[in-house]
Every structure is written in C-alpha cells, then in structure tokens.
Design brief:
heterodimer, A: nine-stranded antiparallel β-sheet, B: five-stranded antiparallel β-sheet, about 25% helix, Rad9 (chain B)
C-alpha cells in the first residue's frame, strides 16, 4: 500500500485547501478513499452523525502534479483511510505560500498521512513544515459500507438559490427553531419554513427551475404545484451551507417526501453530495 | 520612583506588559540604577520573565525622590495589564505615560496623558516586596540559537494555539526543528485518533547564530515563548535562545540598547530523549509531567511557602541583577561528557556565591524534583548527556 502525491501549482493548492476546509466544516472524522484517478471524502450514514452522509469526489489530475498510488492488491487498487479533516485543513493552512506540497502515507510509529510543505521564505533558504496526520487504515472487509450512496428516486428536484442567501436566512431561523422544513415543487418554488408554538416563518424562493432530466421522469405525473417536503435538523443544514465558501456552478436539491433531502453540488473540479435524513 | 515614557515607547512598554501577563499573576516593579525592571514568575515557578528598561528608554527616570527610599513593589498583573490593555489605543491616543509610586497613599500611579488633554489616572494598590530574581546565566548554557523574531514567529505559526509544549532541536544539516510535543497519554487514547504532530524545519541560514551540536533538543512551553516572541516581533529584535541539557532551564533573551528581556523557562527533563528521535517523529514517552504542571505534591505546602520567602529575601537589591561573574561562569562548553555533566549537577556553586546556588535549587527545584529527588542528580544528568553524543 503506497501513496504519494505532489502539488506545485498555487491555484491547485488553493483549490485543494478549499476542499479540505469544506470537508472540515462538514465532518469531524471522515473516510478518504484514494484510487488511481480520484479522491473521495466519504461520510456515510453513521448514527453519530445524525444519519448525515457525504460523498465528495475530486479528480486527482485536477489537483496533483504527481500522483502515485498502490492499493492493497491489483484487483483492489484502492486505499481507504479514516482521518480528522480538521487536521488536514489546519495542515493546509500553513501551505498558503508554499513552493510545493507533498502528501504521502507513512508509518511513523503509527500510520500517518504526512503532509510536507516546502515554504517560500524571503531568504533563499527553504523551510519545511511537516504535519503527521494520524489515520486509521480501513480494512478491506469494511469497504463495502463505504460505497457511493444511491440517490433515491426523488419526488421533487429543484435548483437551489444562491447558497449565501439561504445561509443568512437559515442562520436567523436557527435562533427560533431546531427544525427546518424544506418544501419544493416542480414549478420552481422552494420554501424554507420553521414552525413553533408561537411563530411560523417561511421564506419563499421562486422561479428556481428544475433540471430537464427530472421533468421527464415518472414523477412528472405529479401536480406541478404539489409540494414535497422534508423536516430536518436545522444545524445539519446550516453546517452544510457554512461549508460552501464558493457558490457552486450547479446546486441541486432532491427531496424525497418525508424521507431525505439530497444536495448535489458541482464545482469546477469537485462534486459534493450531501444527504440529510428527515426527522421522524 | 518616577518614570516618564513618551511616544512609541509607551507601546513598547505595553507590549512588554502583555508578554509578561502570559506568565505570572503578579508583576514586580523595581526601579534600579540601571533601569526599571518588570518581573514576574508563574505560579508553578517554571517560568520567570524580566524586562529591564534602561534610563534612556524614559524621558525622565528617577529611582527615588530625595525623601524616599528606592522602593520596589508588586502589583496584580491583571490591574497593571488593564492600563495597557488596548495597544491600538496606546498607539493612537497616548502621548505619554508616567509611572510613579505614591508612598503616602500607598498607590502605584500610572498616568496616561492622551490627546486633547485627556488624562487617565490609574491608582493601583501594591504590596511591598523583596526583589524577585531567578538566577540564571546565559553564558553557562552550552547551546545558543539566535534568529530574528520574525523567523521564529513564522516558525511557531503552524502550531495550534492549544498546543502546550514544543520540542526545539538541532538535527543533521544542520537544521533547527520545532515539533509538537505530545504526552504519551495524549498520544495513545484508544479508539480516538491521535493529535496531529507538526514539525517545522528551519535551515541554518535563517539563524544569526547557531551554536549547538546536532542531536540536542529541549522541550518547553509554547505559550510563554509566544509571549516573548510577540514582543520581539513588534520591536523587530533578534531573539536568542540559550539552553543546555533537557531539564535545565532555557533562557530566551532579547536585547537592545534601551531594554533587555529575559524569559527563563523550565524544560522537560526526558531521560529517554534520544537525539535520533528528532529525525523520525517518534513520540517520546516521558514519565514526567509537563513543566506547566508543577510538582507541588512532592513538597509540603509549607516548603513552597518557605521557598517563596527565601526567594524573595535572599537577594538584596544589589545582587538582584547580579549574575555569575563572567570569569566564573563555565562559558560555552565543549560537548559535555558524563563527567562534566555530573559537575554540572552542582554547576556554578562557586564559593562565595551561595545565593545563586540556593536560587537555582529553589527556583526550579519543584520542576526538577521528580527527576532529581528519587535518584539524586548525577544519574539523570549522565543520562541526559546522551543527547550530546
């Protein structure tokens, strides 16, 4: 099992830093899957996470100038490790004006993902910072639990409004209620709603549009005005919104009535799927 | 006592108070012939800091008015710090600052003369006290590092604010490394991922002086170090680190023609600190506690009190800044053999200078005790000297 990769391009480094900051906001610990052509940050359906799942995928060649890996065997050419994304994000914070960044799997008395950063300094001398991020290697038999979650057949699929706007709305709502109802229909309407004994607050978004594929799906038989809704933990949703520093090129919300809400964000070189289960 | 500080020096003084406040709860002010000294020591006696502002630092400096005895006093750090709390305010609005001791009302008076004729007067209550003086001698330390504060400041930047201690060492190259120090218990908590280990490696070229063999390493508290660093960075000074074998205090100094600052920090005594441990980040397994946690339990509380009394009374004002005369100090030493180290056990016990010896044991006794008291000094020192090999 081997893994080493290198980033020398500043833009790539910044992008990678942004991804790891986002993951750090979304999960306390997560799984990193390393395969020959991509990296995945995975968080799957753990009770401790309140049933939230995350699947983040990046093409390695969009980030790394060098990338070598050797999985546990030829037919299973993959590596699964568990790590604390906060550590990764903190490590990358020190790489802001780095000349090069290397990532590799090491075993320094315990298994680590070692990030070594060659810093630029005013003098010609080079400085290096090394971060040993402790990891757990996930054995082969547990891999089956870490596969890409299937997106359930959704009742309503709708594009999201600007995430920042949603965030500022939800931030206010959080002070009033712990639960948020997201409802949407195929007519481009999305409502964020909180209800308490004393007050009911709804924010309406209009003309959001639905992806063409969804409109051809069987659910087309649905009434365009009919709302699909899901009631979720407002903190989980806010956590998701807070992790998004850059508005994605595509942001889609799929609602399975009273079961789960699935967010599908597409950035230039990263895709993120995030599932928040409905509260019973 | 009357000291008048003007212009940018007010901020320098403020910065110094800020960095002292990271260490102790009480501030000892002592007007001396060669300047005003501000000192503090932390509650576990593992860190001591002093700044000396030369008379030229002040626009007016008067040790004692004719009808006064030269007075020293201690005030609560909190109340003194509150005068200088906002550095931005000091910089923008304060034109001069006058510190005087009002004997009649038993108050230390700090006056800030601000813009537009605003005058803020702080009357701080104080206690009379004896001189606070740790005995240390940078010249007796065999290893010296000196670098611009900015370089060291950048070097500690990657470490998380919550990290308690760092290990500073010299490895092959020579390169100077700083690495997060994790206690064994912290490191192996079953089921939980360990904390991240960060290591910063600096080249020799970044240092103005590097006088240490490869393999030497000490572990000390980061918080206090950061305090002095932020002072040194703001005044653009170089910072020297004088150190010896693990377990002996490390001395951090900044110097200028107008002021000097000394921070003396206990270092972790690690019987099993191996020089090669630096190359590969092996987690050391020290049975000892961190310097931040005093071994007060090893003594009865009475003893601690008498330590303090002894410390405050033994040295009079004359000797208060006295260090070992240079001629008597061991000076930069060649790599210590175990033999020379066991001499180090009672290091500079030069006849005729009992206070230093007493101080050393008093001051850092509580820190060194776990290593020293069970086995006696020699074995430990001999072991540590492996680090020099």
């Amino acid at each position: 099992m081997k893994f080493r990769a290198k980033i020398v391009d500043t833009a790539c480094l910044n992008n990678f830093t942004r991804v790891s900051n986002m993951i750090a906001k979304l999960a306390k610990t997560c799984t990193l899957r390393i395969s020959p052509d991509k990296l995945n940050f995975i968080l799957l359906d753990k009770v401790a996470n309140g049933g939230v799942s995350m699947w983040c995928e990046l093409e390695q060649e969009n980030f790394f100038n060098e990338f070598q890996m050797e999985g546990i065997s030829e037919e299973n050419n993959e590596i699964y490790i568990e790590l604390t994304p906060e550590n990764l994000s903190r490590a990358l914070k020190t790489a802001q004006n780095a000349r090069a960044l290397k990532v590799k799997l090491t075993n320094k008395h315990f298994p680590c993902l070692t990030i070594s950063i060659e810093l630029l300094s005013i003098s010609s001398s080079s400085r290096t910072v090394t971060h040993d991020i402790p990891i757990k290697v996930i054995p082969r038999k547990l891999w089956k639990d870490l596969q890409e979650p299937t997106v359930p057949e959704s009742d309503v699929s709708i594009y999201l409004p600007v995430l920042k706007t949603m965030k500022s709305v939800v931030e206010k709502m959080k002070n009033i209620s712990n639960h948020l109802i997201i409802e949407a229909n195929l007519n481009g309407e999305l409502n964020l709603k909180i209800e308490t004994e004393l007050v009911c607050v709804t924010t309406h978004f209009k003309d959001l549009g639905s992806p063409p594929l969804a409109s051809e799906s069987p659910s087309q038989s649905r009434n365009l005005e009919e709302m699909a809704e899901v009631r979720i933990d407002i903190r989980k949703f806010l956590q998701f919104l807070a992790g998004q520093q850059v508005n994605p090129t595509k942001a889609l919300c799929n609602i399975v009535n009273n079961r789960v809400v699935h967010f599908d964000l597409l950035h230039e070189d990263v895709s993120l799927q995030y599932f928040i289960p409905a509260l019973s | 006592m009357k000291c008048l500080v003007t212009g940018g020096n007010v901020k320098v003084l403020g910065k110094a108070v800020h960095s002292l406040s990271r260490i102790g709860d009480e501030l000892y002010l002592e007007p001396l012939e060669d300047g005003l000294s501000l000192r503090t020591v932390n509650s576990s006696r593992s860190a001591y800091a002093c700044f000396l502002f030369a008379p030229l630092f002040f626009q007016q400096y008067q040790v004692a008015t004719p009808d006064q005895d030269p007075a020293r006093c201690k005030v609560l750090m909190k109340s003194f710090l509150s005068v200088f709390r906002s550095l931005a305010m000091l910089e923008k609005t304060v034109e001069k600052c006058c510190i005087s001791l009002n004997g009649r009302s038993s108050r230390l008076v700090v006056q800030l003369h601000c813009k537009y004729g605003v005058r803020k007067i702080h009357n701080l209550s104080f206690q009379d006290c004896e001189s606070l003086q740790a005995v240390f001698d940078p010249a007796s330390c065999s290893h010296v590092l000196r670098a611009p504060a900015r370089v060291l400041g950048e070097a500690v930047l990657p470490f998380p604010p919550a990290l308690a201690e760092v290990t500073l060492g010299v490895v092959r190259g020579p390169r100077v490394i700083l690495r997060s120090y994790l206690e064994e218990e912290e490191a192996v908590t079953a089921g939980v991922l360990r904390p991240m280990v960060t290591e910063m490696s600096l080249r020799e070229e970044d240092f103005q002086e590097l006088q240490a063999q490869e393999g030497v390493a000490i572990t000390f508290c980061l918080k206090e170090f950061r305090g002095l660093l932020s002072f040194a960075e703001s005044t653009n000074l170089s910072l020297s680190i004088h150190f010896d074998v693990p377990g002996r205090p490390a001395i951090f100094t900044v110097e200028d023609s107008l002021l000097d600052g000394h921070f003396v920090l206990a270092t972790l005594s690690e019987p099993d600190s191996q020089p090669q441990g630096l190359g590969t980040p092996q987690l050391p397994a020290p049975p000892l506690q961190a310097p931040s946690t005093p071994h007060l339990d090893d003594f009865t509380s009475d003893d601690i009190d008498s330590f303090m009394i002894a410390m405050e009374t033994t040295v009079g004002s004359d000797a208060s800044r006295a260090q070992l005369p240079p001629s008597l100090s061991p000076g930069p030493q060649p790599p210590c053999s175990p033999d020379s180290n066991s001499e180090e056990a009672e290091p500079s016990t030069v006849p005729g200078t009992p206070p230093p010896k007493k101080f050393r044991s008093l001051f850092f006794g509580s820190i060194l005790a776990p290593a020293y008291s069970p086995q006696g000094p020699s074995p430990v020192l001999a072991e540590d000297s492996e680090g020099e090999g």
